[in-house]
Specification:
The protein is α/β, with parallel strands linked by helices. It is about 35% helix and about 15% strand.
Length: about 500
């Protein structure tokens, strides 16, 4: 299979909190995504793509640097990317190509050199600090006053996030139009454009035309809503992430309708962007990649939002399409990761010779080898036995936990507690936890072996807690956080006009 590309440009579109199965082309019974379905029909959909961490800030730092969370040290929502490591943006820019971002980055600040020139309408973490409560893991604070907000916001209507997405979409269309109108010499210069939309991230308020596409009465109720709360770590996380306490049956159905409405709203914005790309004349020489930073649980397993290793939270949509790709309308089942975007970008822009070449910029303080593998190489040589890692060290977690996925198996290791194991072929909704099943001891051993080939979970957990204690002390400890702004989702930047 010829999966290599000769495209000159690369358009990367990232959403926020889009679960992998919430696509028409993935067979979802309700969600309408005609634009993304059409993109998948002319490209390849990766059905087993995973985030390096099921929460925004660590996932995005890993996505941009190509290194796992334990390699970057960007552990939590209060430890954002700060320009200390090289990103694929730096690598592309170093070749002389234009590398531009529009929309959400969730880094520390535009004052840092994040690899993009320019950053248009960037969203970064609040005050360069982020969600400071994520540092409070031992003991954890009471989050219930904030958790109620998720259910209270459910319904039909606009939000600051939908307004922000409209502005991002318009800015992208304007950038593509202006690009087409530049002089011939500048117009020939290849580019990489990163467009980062916020939908379908909560608040679960969908614009009227999109909310009304979905009748709440016809929405399914959460699956396996009782969850695995006999597991001590999951029980503690449920006590913290207590969103479900405020969702009765009617609110659950309405919340799902709003979430699906936001996905259709997202799809409509992507349609405008792709139409602008067509009108710019650059579509024929541009590869397009769509993905999201993590998923959304929607009440399944007893949880809303993300932060867990269940498929709805940790698996993400991923579609790659381009003129020269010979994989049209196909589904690649080989496991892949958001870490694969770094080598994919470099290969697409012909900025390196192989898929795992580390960038040697002096900016790189982490010399660990990337776990990423170019998606183009995966298309040419799928590896179903590949081990994919995800990890979580963020708010609500009393300990670090790690997922490895390979073949049909998912193994989750909780430092200091019993593991979980799921057979994703016979049990795709992860209702039957084999973590203590005697007949699967060999599979659990294999999962732990694969994990320890990559990292020492106890050592990583110790380092994460130490780094977070140090960060907390830099703010004056728990007392120092008391006066900081509390929020449930990052405020949008100022939008002119």
């Amino acid at each position: 299979m010829n999966a290599m590309t000769s495209a000159k440009n690369l358009l990367i579109i990232m959403s926020d909190e889009h679960a992998a199965d919430a696509l028409g082309c993935a067979g979802h019974p309700h969600v309408m995504t005609p634009t993304l379905d059409a993109l998948a029909a002319r490209g390849t959909r990766f059905s087993n793509a995973y985030t390096p961490s099921p929460i925004c800030v660590p996932a995005r730092a890993a996505f941009h640097t190509g290194h796992a969370v334990h390699q970057t040290g960007y552990w939590s929502s209060a430890q954002p990317y700060d320009g200390r490591m090289s990103t694929w943006g730096h690598a592309v820019r170093a070749t002389g190509r234009d590398c531009v971002s529009i929309g959400k980055l969730h880094f520390r600040s535009t004052a840092d050199d994040n690899g993009f020139s320019p950053e248009i309408l960037p969203m970064h973490v609040m005050d360069g600090i982020g969600w400071s409560e994520s540092l409070l893991r031992d003991p954890m604070p009471d989050y219930s006053v904030h958790a109620r907000e998720l259910a209270d916001d459910v319904g039909r209507g606009e939000s600051s996030y939908t307004a922000y997405d409209r502005a991002i979409t318009q800015a992208t269309c304007d950038w593509l139009s202006n690009r087409a109108n530049t002089n011939a010499a500048d117009g020939q210069k290849p580019w990489t454009l990163f467009v980062s939309l916020v939908s379908p991230h909560y608040p679960l308020s969908a614009p009227e035309d999109f909310f009304d596409l979905y009748d709440p009465a016809k929405m399914n109720l959460p699956r396996h809503a009782e969850g695995h709360l006999d597991h001590p770590i999951l029980a503690e996380m449920r006590d913290f992430w207590c969103y479900g306490d405020y969702f009765d049956e009617a609110r659950s159905r309405a919340g799902r309708a709003a979430y699906y409405g936001l996905i259709s709203f997202l799809d409509a914005n992507i349609a405008k962007i792709l139409d602008a790309l067509d009108r710019s004349g650059a579509a024929g020489e541009t590869d397009i990649l769509y993905t999201s930073d993590h998923g959304e649980l929607l009440g399944n397993h007893g949880f809303w939002t993300k932060s867990l290793m269940y498929e709805e939270s940790v698996r993400v949509p991923m579609i790659l399409a381009g003129r020269d790709l010979q994989c049209r309308g196909e589904v690649c089942e080989a496991p892949v990761s958001l870490l694969d975007l770094y080598p994919t970008v470099l290969e697409a822009m012909a900025a390196m010779d192989g898929p795992n070449t580390d960038n040697t910029s002096s900016r790189h303080t982490n010399t660990a080898r990337s776990l990423g593998r170019s998606l183009y190489r995966t298309l040419a040589q799928p590896d179903p036995d590949r081990t994919i890692l995800s990890e979580y060290h963020d708010g609500g977690s009393p300990t670090g936990f790690f997922m490895v996925r390979w073949q049909r198996w998912k193994f989750i290791y909780y430092v200091g507690a019993r593991p979980q194991l799921f057979d994703l072929v016979s049990d795709p909704y992860e209702e039957n936890d084999l973590g203590t099943d005697r007949d699967h001891a060999d599979v659990r051993d294999e999962g732990e072996r694969r994990l320890r080939v990559i990292l020492d979970p106890e050592a990583v957990n110790t380092r994460a807690f130490a780094d977070q204690r140090a960060k907390l002390e830099s703010y004056g400890g728990r007392d120092g956080l008391a006066d900081m702004v509390k929020f449930n989702h990052t405020p949008v930047p100022t939008i002119d006009g």
